[in-house]
Amino acid sequence: MVSITETQKIGVGLTGFGLFFLLFGVLLYFDSVLLAFGNVLFLAGLAFIIGLRRTAGFFFQRQKLRGSTFFLGGVALVLFRCPIIGMAVESYGFVLLFRSFFPVAFGLILSLVNIPYLNVGNSSSMV
Q1: What domain range is 48 assigned to?
Q2: Where is the chain membrane-spanning (predicted)?
Q3: CA dihedral 100, 105, 28, 9 (to 10 degrees)
């Protein structure tokens, strides 16, 4: 079993609250204060979960530099009170940064949710 440190538990909480504030800021018609707070909490939570050095290493890898530029530029635009443009730029950067992770996440979700017609790998479960 993988042991999770107290710092990582705090990071999961910060990331969760960050995502909550981002969602709440979008639902309240792109409230710039909530979006900025959500961005700061999300980035702080990511740093707590994987550490400062690995976070910096993740964002500044050569192949992810374009996505990092868009993502952090979008965060800066939200902080400078241009929430709609900032969220669009940040979303594009998020997709560029995490595009290699999406198939893994979708595979995990599909393995947790047992929907027979979506589970392509196991044809015996279809009736």
Answers
A1: 6-53+63-114
A2: 12-30, 36-56, 68-89, 101-120
A3: -100
